[in-house]
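Hi F.,

I've been meaning to write this up properly since the lab meeting, where we talked about keeping a consistent format for the predictions we share between groups. The idea is simple: the sequence comes first, exactly as it goes in, then the structure tokens exactly as they come out, then a line or two of notes. No screenshots and no reformatting. I'm using this chain as the first example so we have something concrete to point to.
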Amino acid sequence: MIPPATKPTAKNPAKYTPRDPLKNPVNQRLPLRTRLAIALGRVVSRLLRLFGRGATTLPGRISLMVDPGLLSHLTAGRQVFLVTGTNGKTTTVRIICTLLEQNGIQITTNTSGANLDTGLATTLITAQAAIRAADRRGAGNAFVFEIDEAYFGKIADQLNPSVAVVTNFFRDQLDRYGELRTTRNLIEKGIAKIDSDIVLNADDSLCASLGRYRPEQASYFAMAPEMLTEQPARSSDEASYCTYCGERYLYNGRSYGHLGRFHCPQCGFTHPEPDLTVQVMPTDADQKEQGQQLLFRSVDGAQAQGFLPIPGIHNAYNAAAAVLALQTAGYSLPALASQLAAASPAFGRMERFPAEGREVCLLLVKNPVGMDRALEYVTA
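Output, unedited:
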């Protein structure tokens, strides 16, 4: 089915009033079952840690057995950011957390990488003491969660998100997800259930298509036109054909893989107008090793530069996703751009550490496009 002809626009005020992290529901009385679930989960967590176990999912699994509505009860009224997609989830979450912390907001996030419902439940129940303490102090408090693609459709609505971010779609874990469109459809189910702003990658046709039915709530980030190059189509390219009519896309330039300014010559589905673009500015070789200078341009004409201490064009996309998510929540572009310098790589993501008198850079690779990005960085 070809979607409505109305094209997503860059001006898309959300229907809801953004939740203020400084106005948390401190006096909210949790249901008895929820309080019992929290207490039991915390006991299980302490016991597991006593025996040297990680305690990242089992406490949550047991708590959810006691109260299946636990996630909804603990996130109600909070400022919640969700991040999903194939690549970049962990780094995007880390950048969002850094930017919020730079603005004085206390963060609750699943740093362990446990991104299923059980891991999220564990994160929330073990953080309750810190959350309540922040509430009593009147401090800001926000939740930032990385969500597995397959679980996003199942639990997104339970987490009461303020903003949901979808980074991209690439071939990954075929034994779990099958084809790319299967992954896209799993996430679409989650988006259909939530009433929040959604932040999407305009350069990814599969990702951009998620906003077709929600133009008033969708915001898009993209690579600046100056960063795109003419690249011939390859048989290995992913998402080469239109989501709606099956015709092969034409491109006015690509960044890498299937990301770029696409349009369908048959049904007219095309790259949406981005709300925020990012451009990697020229830097000397030494600075390039340490990160990248980014220029952000907003649809309202504002622009700002900031240094991201994480190299790689794919991380420029992640930074744009994080910045746009916070712009959507009411933060200013110049402040966000300047605060990027406080970010640091997540484990294995361009992480640097000394080893035997040398500096080592660790690059985590999970799928073919990740390997492509890693090899390009190494050979640059």
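Notes:
DSSP finds 14 helices and 13 strands in the chain.
The chain has one domain: 32-379.

If this format works for you, I'll send the rest the same way.

G.
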